Amino acid sequence: MDVTNFSSQPHWRHCYRNICTDNFVERKHSFPSPFTTSFKTHSRTKKITMSSEVVFNLEYLTRLEESARTLESTPQQRSEMMFKAQREVDAYLEQLSLDHPTGWVIPPKETQGQDKLVQPGQYQVQSGPNQVQSGPDRVQSGPDQVQSGPDQVQSGPDQVQSGPDQVQSGRGPHETEPLPIQENGVSIDEVLRDFSRIGNEMEREGHPGHMAYVPGNSTAPAAIGDFLAASFNPYSLNVASCRRAVKMQQMIVQWVGRLFGYPSACAGNLTSGGTVATMVAMTTARDHKVPRSKDYSRSVLYLSELTHDGVAKCLSTLGMREAVVRKVPVDDKYRMDVNILRKFIENDVQNNLLPFLVVATTGTTDVGSVDPVPAIRAVATQYNMWLHVDACYGGFFVLCNSAKHLFEGVETADSIAVDPHKGLYAPFGTGLVLVRNGTLLRNSNTRQHGNYMQDQLTNPEDWNPEDLTFEQSAHFRAPRVLLPLQLYGVATFRDALQEKLELAKYLYLRLKGQAHIQVVEPVLSTVLFRIPGVSDNTNRALLREITTDGRFFITTTTVKGVLYLRVIIFCYRTHRQDVDVFINKVKDAVVKMELPEVEFCHAG
To answer: Where is the composition biased (Polar residues) (predicted)?
Structure first.
């Protein structure tokens, strides 16, 4: 008899239910499986005879149970792990304001208005009752080991620096391989010590000097929310599994919907990010506007030249790789040119193409500009197109009274994507999709349960999150958004975002008065500037000069063929004193470049 396939034998269920004897006999040898065949009596190992052919090895099962119970931590073990993990977090955050935003260089400490060098060891984290250290087995010196503190920077030809011309691909000088997956476990100290090295091998998005891309941030309550979500671990996509978890998600979705002026009939979901939120919205648009796949090749998607690249990427995932993508130029304020949009559409209709979707952006990644949503809505309505609004970066500035006018018309959009992991400072992996007509979203995603769920109590009136997205078994994301809002209140987030808007204006006005600098007036919290009348290489040299000591991390972008240095003020730890230091760095960098005298500044 083939014992390895015994569970598949048709008489297995009968044998299991009808144990013929409770006699225990001894077995001399261990077997790799709890199931075996035997007709002899051996010694030592207890077994239950389950049929004339099969015995069940209880000792083997006991050993498995003892090992499996390792996963069942005690309160004391959990407290110890959390205490040590928190110690690592505190050590990282203690370093955050001292080290370079990319984690590779530890720069001099600076104060507002003037530079002040750190003395060796001045900001070194020490041990003691009121001081933070990263663990009892803190990594010491060695070829593959990392130390923290401003006086531990290594030098050498392979040292990785930051800057526009330096490549950070490959292995950095501090980079080590993660602790490998092994057959047997190791101590929590070793695991945490290994993990904490990530702080020395990452872009520190929460650093006040990180002013590149769209930096992500995370708050302590958000981290606690993730801990609670992972610990309770509800299946949060179905009312029958956990109604309260579903309600928490729905409360967030409806609150965001109200911020943008959506009706209560809207529906949405928390997603893994803006691209997935956009994909869910585009799927709904496809199903509603292009129901037949044979029309995909003549379907047309309209974007501006500054629309995020993730939007076009979604077409491939949606099976619409053959669809036509039109990139509409922007005007002198970096907004989609609606007149050109209309001409594109008219021409496509004449050529028997099918315009089905136009994407407007409220907060372009490059510039922070806002497309004219009301005018785009009018064109979309005229040609029976779906209007999607990408509000991933700029969306939560709608909380600020000074920026509300920028979101006029968004309430008429068919769908919206917005990122709580940007404007609400949630951890990465937190997007949100909204569809104005929730029924359309549901029609595109309704789950047909398998037979194994046929006994689950369901109510057709329940709007389960699993019916509003393609995701299933998704992480319970609501606590990472909800806990900070509940703890701090909406007003705190409004003030933090308003501060970033004001800081961007402050930076603009200060740079506007600086000789040799052309600066673009910000719409949100992104500021572009450059030295006009010189080569791109000269502007890249300016970037290197500003970032050479590692205090700030900024990048360049090219808009309408012009290269700019780009600054985004978005981290909640970034305040006026940080911006003042940055302004002084720009001034000093311009002076060092010994540019010709000019009689006026250039402002854009």
So the answer is: 124-134, 142-169
Predicted confidence (pLDDT) per residue in 257-286, tens digit: 999 999 999 999 999 999 999 999 999 999
Reported confidence tier of residue 393, pLDDT bands at 50, 70, 90: very high
224 vs 157 pLDDT, higher one: 224
User: Is 90 exceeded by the pLDDT of residue 200?
Assistant: no
Q: Can you give the pLDDT at residue 238?
A: 85
Q: Where are the alpha helices (DSSP H) in 241-289?
A: 243-259, 274-289
69 pLDDT more than 80: yes
Q: Inter-axis angle of helices 478-488 and 243-259, to 10 degrees?
A: 60
CA dist 326 and 303 (Å) reads: 6
Within a 10 A sphere around the Cβ of 510, how many other Cβ atoms?
Answer: 18
Q: What is the mean pLDDT of the chain?
A: 81
Query: Is residue 138 within 8 Å of 125, Cβ to Cβ?
Result: no
Beta-carbon contacts of residue 58 (< 8 Å; ≥ 6 apart): 46, 47, 48
- Distance between terminal CA atoms of the chain? 84
Residues 435-448: b if buried by 16+ CB within 10 A, e if exposed? bbbbebbbebbeee
Distance (Å) of CA 351 to CA 193, 293, 327, 341: 63, 19, 18, 16
Instruction: Count Cα atoms within 13 angstroms, Cβ side, for 30.
Output: 6
In this structure, what token pair is assigned to residue 48?
């239950």
Q: How far apart are CA 602 and CA 364, in angstroms?
A: 24
- Tokens 């030295």 sit at which residue? 531
